[in-house]
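In line with agreed milestones, work has continued on tokenised descriptions of protein folds. One protein thus recorded appears below exactly as we store it:

>
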Amino acid sequence: MTTDTGDPRTRWFDLDEARLDLAQRAHRFVEERVRRYQRLYPDAEWSAPESRVPWELLDDLDGTGLRTLGLPGEAGGSGPVDTLTYVVVAEELARGESALIDIVLQGWKVGSIVATHAGAEVRRLWLGRFAAEPRLLFSHCSSEPQGSSDRWLNHDVPEAAMRTTAVRDGSGWVINGRKQFITNGPDSSLYVVYATTTPGVVPSQGTSSFLVPRDTPGFTIGETYEKTGGRLFNNAELIFENCRVTDDHLLILDGASGTSGRTFPASKAIIAAQAVGLAQAAYEAAADFAISRVQGGRPIIQHQAVALRLAEMATRIEAARALVRQAAVAIDRKASHRRPLAYMAKVAAGETAFEVARQAVELHGGLGVMRHAGVERLLRDATLFFHLDGTNDIHRFRIIKDLFPESAGAYAERRDDVG
């Protein structure tokens, strides 16, 4: 391996032409658009929440066809694509800006949910708007103040039901409750919201999903959280106080728990690929610095201690990339082992990203913790992978439950959220 050659075939040497074309398209977008944006706005992540989202990048990304990847024609897409295709694109984009994937993934996921579960009129409206408006964002809203990742253990008992409720009222529904840690929360135009509709039963039989447009009466944005990393996308609390939606905005009645993974099974693999892309960026920054930085009369890459670190970083990235691709293929083939592979990929890639970014900071010496060097930001961004889409420990519990279904115990009940 070397630092970036300008050709993603160094990472995707065995792709078919269609996927390779998408990888190269994403790579060019990073080199031509993302790098320019980063030069022009080096402190964008420290702006106020209302001005930190990289809207210009979303405008530019729209021209590549990648913003609407996999969505139906009415959303500006070219039809469904497989998980491996999402993985390839996500890694290349995250190599330039990890937070961009957090924003775009919501569009891929919610767009797929709308296309699959919304009625014809609602589907045409929102997918049509999504196609026409590059700055229109979606949010997927499950996490609550009373429970987030622990819900993924799927203790399917009434006590685990969501506190957010929806009650039928005439020709619609009234939603009350709160959601937290919602990606794109302050900036989205449409939200998929999960709520308890049949109290007293297990969540798998009493949870429904709804579409809530931003301007719906009774719906407000609460606190926008200030995060350590991933600061170019906003994350917020959502508040529902007698929020009324019409019946055509009901997506799934009573059986919505866990359905997002079946509708859009690529999510875990995309997050894992995002982590690999960030690790690749950190590795390239470290290698470039090691080649150009001279200490003791020679570039520091010629010092054995530095060479060993770079070799370890490259090896860990290649191992994580291989696992992510294997998980993607298993998901696409609906293989029996796809769930533990997806969880393993998410855990391994996220921890690889953090460790590689940490090593990149170390190799830069004191410069590594200075904002203008750029690598400290990669380390901050990497901290999110311990929690994105469920904590790593929760995923480890689920790995064990899949590997030892009869022995692992009730703490790790399996939930089919990976296709």
